[in-house]
Design goal:
This protein has about 325 residues and is an alpha/beta fold. The protein is about 35% helix and about 20% strand. It has eleven helices and eleven strands. The chain starts with a strand and ends in a 12-residue tail after the last helix. The mean pLDDT is about 95.
């Protein structure tokens, strides 16, 4: 029995190695369909090493598994995968899974057994976008998925603390980061309530995106719990990427003291209400009222970071959250 896997393999990156490893561990002999130099010139937006060099790198990698394998030239997307009776499995990425399903339909029409589809999940770079040869060629990332050119992040805010927390978080995640603060945005209220908090965070994120990699919107709002009769302060973060995909996250919430709730009902923000009660200004630009109320055991910065981190969780396992494709 034979497992097949096809591709250009222009730059032997972590995603390629995952595909070849899955084929090698399938228990079958492996045939790699490697696109020809002509196919590379005619179908790819990037140049790459010639066929012989790409073949050599594949052979070097597969030879470490002690399996039988062959690398063959491939001049079309499907080669002879729709007609060969020898093949029993095919290795695909989320991007090529639909193609494999189409291959199986054509095999069934021809009276052949469908191939077992072995799907390798997205292999993500440090910026949470998939590793690809195109991105390596463009100088965005290296073959291990480390960011080479700066990750460009926009955030709509007039609050220096939000910008600082966002920059520090993405630097830990991707290393090379540039953060651009956008002040050209508007919200419907200085003190959002309930679902308006989510809507305002979303609007901030889209306003910040422009031509960048990510746009970030972080909004603090009050949510009323009918079960407890209490109001809770929650940070909501919206993250939209250059493909238009948006994800959301929330921080943990804390109960807002009744004297502040009463003033919010009269149209004040939490910071304005806190100032009226204590005389302390600009609390939102430092540790926030949560810092004062918790005796500095919780700070506004930690809640901002928590909401941002949680907004990125769906991007860490995009398929599980239903994201099937990235734009190419």
């Amino acid at each position: 029995m034979i497992t097949i896997v096809g591709g250009t393999f222009a730059y032997m990156h972590r995603g390629h190695r995952a595909m070849l490893r899955a084929a090698a561990e399938s228990g079958n002999e492996v045939i790699v369909g490697l696109t020809t130099d002509r196919y590379l010139r005619e179908h790819k937006a990037y140049s790459g090493p010639n066929y012989e060099e790409r073949k050599r790198r594949i052979e070097e990698f597969l030879s470490t598994f002690g399996i039988r394998f062959t690398v063959q030239p491939l001049d079309t997307q499907t080669g002879n995968s729709e007609t060969s009776e020898q093949y029993s499995a095919i290795v695909v990425s989320p991007e090529t899974q639909e193609r494999a399903m189409a291959i199986n339909k054509n095999r069934e029409r021809a009276g052949l057994r469908p191939l077992r589809i072995i799907k390798v999940p997205y292999i993500l770079a440090s910026d949470l976008f998939p590793i690809s040869s195109t991105r390596i060629y463009m100088g965005e990332i290296d073959t291990e998925g480390r960011r080479v050119s700066p990750l460009r992040v926009g955030i709509s805010t007039g609050n220096a603390l939000k910008e600082q927390v966002t920059k520090a978080f993405f630097e830990r995640m991707a290393g090379n980061v540039q953060v651009f603060r956008n002040t050209e945005y508007s919200t419907g209220s200085q003190q959002p309530m309930g679902e308006d908090t989510v809507a305002f965070a979303r609007d901030r994120a889209f306003a910040a995106l422009r031509s960048l990699d990510y746009g970030i919107g972080i909004e603090s709002g009050c949510f009323w719990s009918p079960l407890t009769g209490k109001v809770f302060d929650v940070h909501v973060c919206a993250v939209v990427d250059r493909y238009g995909y948006i994800t959301y996250g929330m921080s943990s919430g804390f109960e807002v003291p009744e004297p502040i709730v009463e003033r919010i009902k009269r149209g004040q923000t939490t910071s304005q209400a806190y100032f009226e009660l204590t005389g302390e200004e600009n609390i939102g630009n430092s540790e926030g009222i949560v810092g004062r109320l918790s005796r500095s055991s919780v700070t506004r910065a930690s809640l901002i970071e928590e909401s941002l981190r949680n907004a990125l969780i769906p991007r860490m396992d995009p398929e599980f959250y239903g994201r099937r494709r990235f734009a190419t």
